[in-house]
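Structural prep section.
Before we set up the soaks we want a predicted structure of the protein with N-carbamoyl-L-aspartate in place, mainly to decide which crystallisation condition to try first. Input record follows.
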Amino acid sequence: MTLTKRSLVTIDDLSNGEIEALFSLADEMSDSMDEQFGVCRGKVMASLFFEPSTRTRLSFETAMHRLGGSVISVADARATSLAKGESIADMARVVGSYADVIVIRHPWEGAARVVADYAGIPVINAGDGGHEHPTQTLCDLYTIKKERQTIKGLKIALWGDLKHGRTIHSLAYALAKFGATIHFRSGPGLELPDYVKKKLTTEYTGRLERYDAVTGTGKGRLFPLDAIYITPSEPHQLANIPAVSMQIELKTGIDALYVTRLQRERLSPTDKEQELKENYPVVDKKLLKEKEFERTLVMHPLPRVDELAYEVDADPRSMYFKQAVRGVPIRMALIASLLGTREVSVPEEDNPFVRKVDYPVYRRGFGVRCTNPGCVSTQESEARYIKPEFKIVDYRPLTLRCAYCEHEVHPPYIASSDWHEGKLENKKYHGAGSQWARRIKAENLLIFDSEAEAEAHGFKPGHYIGQRHQDNGKKAGQRE
Ligand code: NCD
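Run finished without errors. Recording the tokens verbatim:
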């Protein structure tokens, strides 16, 4: 498939083949930087950064300048009509008529997707809240690939704020789809969000094991581990690794250690920053003396705070400034291929590390809404036009994944728009844990957040109202 006119909102928008093709183009461009001037002559890139940025914004803008294109930019939301209550959809429509490509960073999760839906031109997500940051992942993978020639079969450790780190989320998916094994170690209370774990285990062919579940206390180890994503060593084996080989797996060295800062701007008012900082993993000279880090690439998306000691900078294993340098050719390759000024076209291929799942979509103007306060679909200015949209990823219990921020919702009530024989007395709603969740055809399914809402839509309580969730221990027919 060609990359021309496409958007990059999540790392899953690119196949492995397309990522590799971008790497080859980036190699070519960095080897002949001066010859690239003119590749995007006459093209305009809009650079919309509604959150602080140094590397991402400047490397995108440098990339466009090196390609001979022009840049228009906004670096402060207060200077735009968003500050007057304008929706990002309206902004996207307008900017889409001025520019040829948009790069957007925004604090709301799913904002880049909305811009891509409305702009009519290619949109690149440069970070949407704590959700994803796919172009940072391209820089990270490109660095690993350049230093280790392959990603498949490598053992990569992801440390730090796994909960809010958008670079972590995109990188974890990418490593899974290239067949790497991932060792997760978070700061206390900063573990991977459930929706990321769920996606890793349902959409990729590896297996996620809680570390202590397999190895007991993990005594004798230098540092604690939350979980390991084990990639299938042979794709057809689907990660059938017994606990014993897992112990062996843990003993050999780490290929890359990727650490991130505490994302303090994403903490909730109830989070205690001081407590989160205590026991936060730190990478320093002493740690890197350990045998398992002998050949480890030390990576960081930057900016760093306290989690990566300056004394590591002189160590040949440190890669973080190289990651930043490589941001320019990677972003040049991406911009030129989305604009179609350099054709990148890769045949579609099956990826043995990715499981193809076709989830039913739930999209209605009423009913269940996303519960993530950081999601674009729940913001006052955006809720006027965004129809909540979900993928139904599970029926036991009924689990919806928001199409914008990907957080999961477990709604309590369901009904069918096609009630029995069309008789009003059969217009009933049921608990989402009842047999009806599977029985009702996806196109007829109505999902509600509350009894009041179901009743507001003319539904009366059915017999299975008590079965809100699969495991709530209530019997069929029991009312709450
Ligand atoms: C990251 C980001 O913005 O998410 N920075 C970057 O783009 N290089 C990581 C961070 O801010 O910690």
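Observations: The two ends are 53 Å apart (CA to CA).
Flagged for discussion at group meeting.
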